[in-house]
Amino acid sequence: MSRADERTAARLLADALDGAEPADADLAATARVLREAAAAARLDIPAAETERALERARSLPGVTRRPRRRIGVAAAGLAAVVALAAAILLALPFASGPVDVEVQARALAALGGHDAILSVVEVVRPGPGESFPASVRNGWIDAAGGRQRWTQSTTGGTVVAETMVDHGRVTRYDPLRHTAVVAASCAALGSGCADAVDPIAFYRRALAAAGPLRTHERTVDGRRVYQVRLPAQRLGASRIVQVATIDAKTLLPVRIAWRELRPGAPAHTFAVIVVRQIARENAAQISPGLLDLALPRGTRITQLAAPGVPVRLLSSRPISLGAARALTPRPWWLGRSYRGNPIGPITLLRYTGGTAVRISYGPTTLWTYGRVIPPSLLASRIPGKTIPVVGGVGRFYMTIGGLLIGERTVATGTVAVEAPANASTYAALGRARPIP
Description:
CATH topology of the largest domain: outer membrane lipoprotein receptor (LolB), chain A
Strand content: 35-45%
CATH class of the largest domain: Mainly Beta
Strand order of the largest sheet: 7-8-9-10-11-1-2-3-4-5-6-12
Number of domains: 3
Radius of gyration: 28 Å
Number of helices: 10
Helix content: 10-25%
């Protein structure tokens, strides 16, 4: 059978699988067997849940369709067609046709929509050859807001670390040493992102961002599961991948293995996460403080810029309102006056790893900054409270000098207010807006 005839026969088989009635009886029987095998493996789910995954599949480079021709298929040709069809099914990005797309879409849907908050309990165990002790994580993950907070304890219940990730900025508190590290990104931490970002948050983002993933169905300890390998994340010379085991009934992850891939070395599993519980909560119904980390009074704080070096002030200079308006991203303000105080000096401060803009209105000062927090706002925090404000959630802290600091996360970074009274700080944080 020539290559041209093989390609034509394969197209005829594809037509038959799509529902067309082939003229050849043998080809019709083959198509019927393949359709029945596919039907036995399908999972019934609403079309809307898989449409996003299917769109990613449709965007993959395809094969140009050619005009269809009908030819007779001999017995030998039919065997070649079946072998060719099997090879195509094994070579495609899907291990078993649409089932993989459905599993991927349903696994993502099982974690809830963008308005869901995930409550997670997981056990972290060392991989083969690793010696760190097992620990327990209790965490909250905001899928839409880019925030997550988790507490890590020994199996005996002693808290050893509390971590907050807020749009890439990482705060890690060590209660045993009474110290904290605030990093502009997880790249600034010696252990990198693999230790700073919760595996479930990583898993969710990877499912949403990846194209069609190869899924393997198997039975482990009498439980039907799917296994999927999520795309690698680079960490220096290494790459970190997740191998997730997903319960076939709930479509929630039950086990996640972190593997390190180094050039010229075999893959190494350095940690295994056993997921004990994943619960979905509505963001509007939880306390805002659940996704905040207030450091205890007297905590020694070290702030690191992205390269891992300490944050320090490099320069400070006054700028005009027009110059502030031209900055990208544009800083926030309280208008040309606030509570009878006209807009005062506007200062551009450049720190190791980032910049900040400070605008004064008499006793009230408004800050706009990115992932690097101005040291004067960070150095002397006394825990306060988290309160909803217009357009978001405000986190409030008291300084040792008696000033109240209120901050809120915005799309371009953080806006913070320094004021001498609670009411004025709360009001200013709700009124602040980008310079028009």
